[in-house]
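> example.struct
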């Protein structure tokens, strides 16, 4: 299975719209077609971004409950790594 890391924009698009390319990527992860790799820092960043007032105003679907459920989905279907290099070569 191919391991993937998504940019934060993919998570925003998937959380804000349940249809579309980003949502399909998350479905591929949940269906075991891709292995999503995250870190605690990535999950924290996603939570921060999805709760930003300018985004919750623009995307009415980003309620606190939706954000919490989305983050829970990510934790369930992803592999969390502890040691992430700060510099990649």
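> example.seq
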């Amino acid at each position: 299975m191919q391991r993937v890391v998504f940019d934060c924009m993919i998570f925003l698009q998937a959380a804000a719209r349940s249809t579309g390319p980003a949502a399909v990527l998350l479905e591929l992860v949940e269906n075991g077609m891709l292995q999503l790799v995250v870190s605690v820092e990535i999950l924290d960043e996603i939570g921060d971004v999805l709760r930003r007032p300018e985004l919750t105003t623009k995307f009415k679907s980003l309620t606190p409950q939706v954000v919490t459920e989305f983050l829970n989905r990510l934790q369930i279907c992803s592999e969390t790594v502890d040691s992430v290099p700060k510099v990649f070569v």
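> remarks
Residues 64-77 form the longest helix (14 residues).
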